[in-house]
């Protein structure tokens, strides 16, 4: 009997990062049986629309089978924007600490010296986020509540946050599932618990209680 064809997963890094930041998650998902791909983009110098269109092309290239997308922080927002139309292969999306309804840290940076340069072309998207998710794909959000990071020093993140993004900033109408883990914003990328929950959602459309 032939082994089942592995399902494709695209990983998107966040602001100020490169694809290698997702290396540990890449390895864990690969070991869990997925066929994993990195998607790199310029998060500061280039407009988000450029990354969104490139991402849509990459997803189409991996057709005709399902293509899942996992995005950390800004990467999760871009994943939703790229997949909100229904002309792409089926699949699910997992966002890791993405400020889907706007980032208090980003708004704080905007009013600080050099903030516009630090956020670059992604500033408006990070500041305001989205209104809701009404695309066809099921979307799961993993938020963190280990407050290790400098985000709280530049913006209001709420009572629970991962050091960069508040838990409430990760909530958005239309999400299929939301869970909160004991991890920081960057710690999500190396967390075995996060990787396990990502794999469960990609396969089942839910998180493991």
From TrEMBL:
InterPro entries from the UniProt entry: AB_hydrolase_1, AB_hydrolase_fold
Domain spans labelled AB hydrolase-1: 9-135
Keywords, comma-separated and alphabetical: Hydrolase
A Pfam family reported for this protein in Swiss-Prot or TrEMBL: Abhydrolase_6
Gene Ontology molecular function: hydrolase activity
Record-given protein name: Alpha/beta fold hydrolase
Organism of this sequence: Luteibacter sahnii
